């Protein structure tokens, strides 16, 4: 069976970036999540029902990397890989790769904190839109640097595309190298000094307070024109879940 791709009303607008942008800017009226301070930080976990539960990222990723047969089964299709990750107390980063083993061709830290983003994930539809303005015709769309960021119709700020990965970002992508889709929690990356074992309990408490949550999924990439493209999350077979779409629009 082929993986299921959620239908979307936006595909026919991709050839007209202005039309698409007007739709994405419009304030949406998503279902209000059940409000609770203790529950809001766990809204991200709704995606765990869609993907393999990888709560021990390092061990599971190592297992997948060591199993060629299982890795081929998970990375069989030539779909774009998108990873959304970030510290619980920090901001969300988006990394887009051609495959889990290649360096990302697009990395950007969203101007939204993890707790706020996780609340958005509790909605049935999640739309992230990036808008850039330029007079140049030389760059590819995803090579632009400055982006206005919209989340579910609301402008949340501006971001600058990264040209280099931070140590933490590289750690996350290296850890998930054998995973094509999944969601879970990774411990914070430390440059461990063996002489600091007496601080292990302190480090453990710090890790629990600022772990890295991640969602990795396969996306169908649809190019409308040289100024517009979109990524639509491909859900596992027969799985019902939220619709996640990412749009790139360039305005000249």
From TrEMBL:
Pfam families: DUF617 (PF04759). Residues 187-208 have a biased composition (Basic and acidic residues). One of its GO terms (biological process) is hydrotropism. Residues 184-209 are annotated as: Disordered. NCBIfam families: A_thal_3588. This is Protein MIZU-KUSSEI 1.
